[in-house]
């Protein structure tokens, strides 16, 4: 319905407020009209009195009645030279009902008298007292009927109300057209832009372009544009993740078969008599086993969720030592040293495979950052515990993370710190730690290096999976 629209309601409110303003003007106007009407009767009565005095009161009864009828009064009393004189008189149909002295009446009194006059339909006889014009005496007093006064006030009031209605309609129409042009039309444009965008949010051509000249509407359009840009970017990222998930699922299927064959050969290497091979074989077997397990669980980040962690009691030192050995081997001739400060007896509750992946991502990122800086550096891993949680710190003496990387650190495809990096490592790591009910945070990153903190709770009450569900 029209009245339920912004335009309709604004139109009705405009008419209402304009009529209210006219009513506030109407009451004083009617009071002013009544005062002018009474003053005109006093002036007419004074003229009739002066005409009589000019003839030394030698006029006939018929002429006196005509003078009184022309003045619209029953009798006239003048006070001149301290003497009160009844100049013109005629029979009064009824006793005087009330007297009004216009010489001392204030605005409030005049308004109250006017309202009572309109509310009383009964014809009355009233006495009106005022000052003669042009100093022709000290006082003039007349008696008159109220019927013609009330009819004149009603006629004047109706004309005022009609004029007010016309002004209200014209004002409301002009305001309606102005509001429709300045507010309603731009708002409809924003709504239409939102509807078009909702039909195809991936289409950047449908993102609104701010054009409103009204500051508030321009701010709304700008905010909507920013929101649409962010949403379109998020949808594109989601699509990329879905595509990546599909690709990884296909790759992991074939890679699993390849790694299974490699695992068979690694098992045979364990039976070799060569001491060097015997030392390296367990690590190779372990690495291949983790790769096979990874393929079997189908890490498809962006399409499939990580499986809930299989919690068990694990020796942290063994996992750290395994990760550091692998990274030390990968470092080759890079000038990177490793420092482990993990109590030998520190046992925590975690999924060993997932924790291994988290530490590998963090330590590998640190090693690559030091290598990219082309200077010697050190990576430190230390751990401790308190009554509530186990805490693991991974530090490095690299160049620190750039501001852009810190801003989107744990977001896939946005938090990469090196050329060619996808930023998936930290995104995967924070998801795995969150699956343990813990947190992975960046404690510091500056020119002296970077520090990450992993905090795993000891409480078994609530453990949240990567999708936010309780595991």
From TrEMBL:
InterPro entries assigned: HATPase_C_sf, HATPase_dom, His_kinase_dom, HisK_dim/P_dom, HisK_dim/P_sf, Sig_transdc_His_kin-like_C
Coiled coil: 217-244
The Histidine kinase domain, residue ranges: 250-460
Top EC group: transferase
Catalytic activity: ATP + protein L-histidine = ADP + protein N-phospho-L-histidine
UniProt keyword list: ATP-binding, Coiled coil, Kinase, Membrane, Nucleotide-binding, Phosphoprotein, Transferase, Transmembrane, Transmembrane helix, Two-component regulatory system
Alphabetical list of SMART domains matching this protein: HATPase_c (SM00387), HisKA (SM00388)
Protein EC: 2.7.13.3
A Pfam match: HATPase_c
PROSITE patterns per the UniProt record, alphabetical: HIS_KIN
A single MF term (Gene Ontology): ATP binding
Ranges annotated as spanning the membrane: 6-31, 160-179
Protein name (database record): histidine kinase
Organism: Rhodovulum marinum
